[in-house]
Design a protein that fits this description.
The two termini are about 30 Å apart. This protein has a two-stranded antiparallel ribbon. It is globular, with a radius of gyration of 18 Å. By secondary structure, it is mainly α. It has one domain. The protein is built from 11 helices and 6 strands. The longest helix is centred in the N-terminal third of the chain and has 22 residues.
């Protein structure tokens, strides 16, 4: 696919990956240019190979996660308190939405979010997004979801080591059990608050395509890619792009 500025980037996917991602994913020129600094081409497979030590780069990634999440929690504490009060007074129920998700190596952890929907008992929480879920979003909840503010409590998940700032979005454990071997490669890294899918369509793209993007991210990860996703995600969120679930995206976990 030819992109603005004349740069072209194609991702080669296996048959299993194509089954999990309904279309070939094109990466923007900015990512293309940045990744070239960190990659070389394997003489045997022709695929990009990340040259620095994976272990050391993941250590740096973890250090950045701890530093940034700590700073945001410290300086953003007044905002977090304000949002918690607004959630509490706007509707009955707890301030936080807590749900089991599948994380690193498929292990379950408890994800934290500001509650954006009318409170329901856990047994009534659906595995997929429905029209009833859409109608149950509160007024303050819609605002939080549009600007991604409902995800802020996940800074605690990051400090605990359950999540990263950038990574695949974590599914429900019940959904993860249905993944193919290829799709389960997304559990090779900590799940993220932000993801590649966030800059490629957010909630508007089919879940199968989101999973394909998560797998591609894990297989092609670099620190440079994280910074590109982080930078571009800021504009996506502030611009409220694709903030609402569409029919294509309704196989996502309820309240994702």
């Amino acid at each position: 696919m030819k992109l603005r500025g004349g740069s072209v980037w194609r991702i080669t996917m296996s048959t299993d990956q194509r089954a999990g991602c309904s279309q070939v994913v094109s990466i923007t020129p900015g990512i293309d240019r940045t990744l070239q600094k960190y990659r070389s081409v394997s003489p045997t497979t022709g695929h990009p190979v990340i040259t620095p030590s994976l272990k050391s780069r993941r250590f740096v990634k973890r250090a950045i996660d701890i530093l940034l999440s700590s700073l945001i929690l410290i300086f953003g504490l007044p905002l977090l308190v304000l949002l918690a009060v607004l959630v509490k007074v706007s509707s009955r129920g707890p301030v936080l939405f807590v749900q089991d998700r599948a994380g690193l190596r498929g292990r379950a952890f408890r994800i934290l979010k500001f509650r954006t929907m009318a409170h329901r008992p856990a047994k009534q929480q659906a595995m997929t997004w429905t029209q009833d879920d859409e109608r149950s979003i509160t007024r303050i909840g819609r605002f939080l979801r549009d600007y991604g503010l409902d995800e802020l409590p996940q800074l605690v998940n990051i400090l605990k080591g359950d999540m990263s700032i950038v990574g695949p979005r974590p599914p429900l454990p019940e959904q993860a059990e249905q993944y193919t071997e290829q799709q389960r490669k997304m559990f090779g890294m900590r799940p993220g608050v932000l993801s590649l899918a966030a800059i490629r369509g957010r909630r508007s793209i089919p879940v199968e395509q989101r999973i394909g993007l998560h797998v591609w991210y894990v297989e092609n990860w670099s620190l440079s890619l994280d910074w590109v996703i982080l930078w571009r995600a800021l504009f996506v969120v502030l611009g409220r792009k694709n903030a609402s679930e569409t029919l294509a995206g309704r196989n996502a976990p309820a309240d994702e």
